[in-house]
Amino acid sequence: MFHCSFTARGHENILATHKTTLELTSEKTLTKRGNCIVGVASSLTLDQFDQKIKKIVKSENTRIILHMNIDSVCEVIEGRGSRGLTYTDQKSMVIRKSSFECDRTLMVNADKASVDLKRDFVQLAKDPRRVILCKIDFLIE
Description:
This protein is mainly beta and 141 residues long. The protein is built from 2 helices and 8 strands; from the N terminus they run E-E-E-H-E-E-E-E-H-E. The radius of gyration is 14 Å and the shape is globular.
């Protein structure tokens, strides 16, 4: 098993209403058009991941689990690796319910999108003073 930890921040324009994706971004600003974004100012981007992780995510046998915590409210999203994941983007990490792959994709076939998050988590994420503690586990099955 491999894992990494990082932080993101809340933002007043977080809506978390997208039905198929969820995103964390290193950008510090956010418009209401970014309705899949649940955290800004991420301290880690996909291109910064360790080469060992970039290799194992190319397998459908890799389970990817994102844990996000704001205070005592926790969200867990599970998805899969896939052959086309490159982890080269310098701004965004996108979790997808679909199997679509691009340089921004963190995981595919996820069990949640932003609309599926608990609303108390989303309410906390709307506060720019809040820090989102993030941990990603990569499990080879």
